[in-house]
Structure prediction request, 63 residues.
Amino acid sequence: MPKITVDNVDYNTEDLTDNGKAQLASLQFLEVQMRKLQNEISVYQTARNSYVAALKAELAKAS
Prediction:
């Protein structure tokens, strides 16, 4: 039986109305998009940190 947990309560997804199923699908879509964005942010932060380190090294050479 497919289940979903919301606020620590388990629900049977087969009992959802069509509207509830649409809401669940939208939520699942958004969660996938959020994970993708979090991964992109992580990549950007890593790149930014590399640029900051390289800039600091250049600034240290210049002073």
Notes: The chain has a mean pLDDT of 94. The chain has one domain: 18-62.
